[in-house]
Amino acid sequence: MQQKLVIDPDLTFIREVKRLGGESVKKCYQCATCSVVCNLSPATSAFPRKEMILAQWGQADKLIRDPDIWLCYQCSDCTKYCPRGARPGDVLAAIRSFIYEHYSFPSFMGRALANPKALPLLLLVPMMAILVMMLAFTRADFSFMAGSIEFSKFIPHGWIEGLFISGNLLIFLFAGIGLWRFWKGLHAMPGGESGPGFVASLILTAKDIILHINFGKCEANKPRQLAHILVFFGFIGAMITAGLAVLALVLFNYGSPIPLSNPIKWLGNISGLSGFVGLTILVYRRATMKDRVGANGYPDWLFLVMLYLVFITGLLTQFLRLADTSIAAYSIYYIHLVIVFFLLWYAPYSKFAHMFYRTLALVYARSIGRTAKT
Ligand code: SF4
Ligand code: SF4
Q1: Which ligand ends up closest to the CA of 222?
Q2: Which of 5, 256, 278, 321 is the most exposed place for a label (fewest CB within 10 A)?
Q3: CATH assignment of 11-103?
């Protein structure tokens, strides 16, 4: 006798995917055009057609363990050719947002970062932390405003570094728990073919990420490759600048502020400009060319806007200090710190986490032979 297949749809999952940017999921009628045009899909068991039907049927358990979800770069080639306007690239992006939320630890933080109503409270935490540090140091007499502008008079750099390092330790621990669950989930799916070992897969994946090779295979949204390169290296440059500035100030007793002629400043300014230009391209295109670049849910926009504000306030802080406008410079510096800590403390729950989740999934996918057909 033929065996019955019982499907148990997770309706909450379908609602969440729609809310996170995949509202067109139900339009798909399984023609498979998307799997044919996708340059990143493997030759066997191609995506995103199979993910579309799993999403329509609310098969959350299968999708959160599916490495193919992370092989997609939301290039919109499939969206351009889909005859039903089902926007598969956007649906896969929404499923990825669902996945960070699902694996987040503690889980209420994942829900908070995906909910616009929680934003004021989330902002209040770094706002209060920085304000308390400032008041503890200056005793609220605002005497630091007199004389030349020096941000170490507002809050000593050592205090900022202390908060940064202690925050990082906690964040890495929480992020590690979520990533470990994700990694175990990937292995719980039936394996594919065998690929290179873990170390070789890691090296090849790192090369692909650094060189932005997969972005280069996209056709409908080509300019995103350059924009992403600018943001990626701008962010890495800004991180290296922050590390070098700490070494210069703490270990080598440089005075503060570091002069503009110093190579650390050059690196910081070039990185800031690179991130600013890249994000301007990304934000402009996402806001004005939804059909070509893909739609975004709230978590994507939150991350993009916060990252954009970090670069803008970072550059502005320096210009206002050079212009000797005390109130404006200290105010923007305060906003800059609040946004930096917002991004840092909530990294495991925001789109920031996609860097880590995607890297793990790409390594795993390569190790089981899931690579692009082209
Ligand atoms: S998402 Fe569009 S192109 Fe892909 S199978 Fe469904 S209808 Fe066809
Ligand atoms: S958005 Fe691009 S990478 Fe993702 S499934 Fe569609 S064609 Fe493939």
Answers
A1: 2
A2: 5
A3: 1.10.1060.10
Residue with tokens 């996945």: 99
CATH architecture of 107-367: Up-down Bundle (1.20)
Residues near ligand 1 (Cβ within 6 A): 28-34, 49, 52, 82, 84, 86, 88
CA of 66 to the centre of ligand 1 (A): 19
Q: Find the 23 Cα to ligand 1 centroid distance in Å.
A: 14
Q: Where are the domains of the chain?
A: 11-103, 107-367
In angstroms, rounded to a whole number, what is the distance separating the alpha carbons of residues 190 and 181?
A: 17
Ligand 1 centroid to 309 CA: how many Å?
36
**Is 274's C-beta closer than 6 angstroms to any atom of ligand 2?**
no
Encode pLDDT of 217-235 as tens digits. Answer: 888 888 889 999 999 999 9
At residue 294, the pLDDT reads 72
Comparing CA positions, the residue from 72, 30, 70, 67 lying closest to residue 52 is 30
Mean pLDDT over 176-180 rounds to 96
